[in-house]
């Protein structure tokens, strides 16, 4: 019987999240580590104290995370032996279902369009933004962090952030283009945000990518702003590819349904 000894190198800052939200995030981080390590049913977890020490949280939070995974039958306890990955856990070797595949494909198409558009918008904003517009963009970035730290999805705040960058180009047609595209933008952001909210490392990556875009715009570096926006979109696509099966089984597919249903056909 194998032992689960490797844990994701993720530090959770307890002050950022409520206990309930923290337990859910620990559960999702553990689940993703099971997939990343290609673990199989009957693999034993370390003790609660070891997991708590690694994530720098209390054992109460770890117990909450384990309880969540037990409820989904991903984990099971064996008296006198510890906690094990349950028989119903499905390794990543299984293919995602058809709905998930369609969702990922549609979202990748939207992100591809966004990469081209938002890279150019960020570059122009770096050259043309006014001090007032920069202040608005920086405030929008702070608002994203504030609401996501409070456990909210930050979809509207994220969309507003990108709309303000478009406005800072000084070209009303860029803003009109993004506004026309706003339905797909919101729908896609709802999915990507939901996926990123399940993993602390993803959420931190998004924050850092947004900060890099704002820093480039603030410094007036068009090339760096273009690159930062492009990297943000490339990474958003990669994060979707790494979404676990449970995400698509639960909220992911539901959130992506309208995108799949409204995908243009040749």
UniProtKB/TrEMBL annotation:
InterPro entries: GntR_C, TF_FadR/GntR_C, Tscrpt_reg_HTH_GntR, WH-like_DNA-bd_sf, WH_DNA-bd_sf. The keyword Protease does not apply. Residues 20-88 form the HTH gntR-type domain. Coiled coil: none annotated. This is GntR family transcriptional regulator. It comes from Polynucleobacter asymbioticus. GO terms for molecular function: DNA binding; DNA-binding transcription factor activity. It comes from the Bacteria. Keywords: DNA-binding, Transcription, Transcription regulation.
């Amino acid at each position: 019987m194998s032992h689960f000894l490797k844990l994701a190198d993720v530090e959770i800052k307890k002050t950022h999240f409520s206990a309930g939200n923290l337990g859910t995030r620990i559960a999702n981080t553990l689940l993703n580590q099971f997939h990343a390590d290609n673990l199989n049913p009957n693999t034993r977890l370390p003790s609660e104290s070891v997991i708590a020490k690694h994530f720098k949280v209390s054992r109460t939070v770890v117990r909450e995370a384990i309880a969540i995974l037990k409820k989904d039958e991903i984990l099971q306890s064996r008296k006198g032996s510890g906690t094990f990955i349950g028989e119903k856990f499905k390794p990543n070797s299984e293919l995602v279902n058809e709905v998930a595949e369609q969702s990922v494909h549609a979202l990748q198409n939207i992100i591809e369009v966004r990469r081209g558009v938002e890279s150019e918008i960020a570059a122009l904003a770096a050259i043309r933004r006014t001090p007032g517009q920069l202040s608005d963009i920086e405030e929008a970035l702070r608002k994203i962090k504030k609401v996501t730290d409070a456990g909210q999805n930050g979809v509207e705040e994220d969309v507003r952030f990108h709309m303000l960058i478009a406005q800072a180009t000084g070209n009303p047609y860029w803003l009109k283009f993004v506004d026309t595209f706003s339905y797909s933008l919101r729908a896609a952001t709802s999915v990507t945000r939901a996926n990123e909210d399940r993993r602390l490392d993803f959420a931190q990556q998004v924050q850092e990518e947004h900060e890099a875009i704002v820093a480039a715009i603030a410094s007036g570096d068009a090339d760096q702003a273009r690159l930062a926006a492009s990297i943000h979109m490339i990474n958003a696509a990669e994060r979707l590819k790494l979404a676990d099966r449970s995400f698509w089984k639960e909220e992911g597919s539901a959130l992506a349904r309208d995108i799949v249903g409204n995908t243009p056909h040749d």
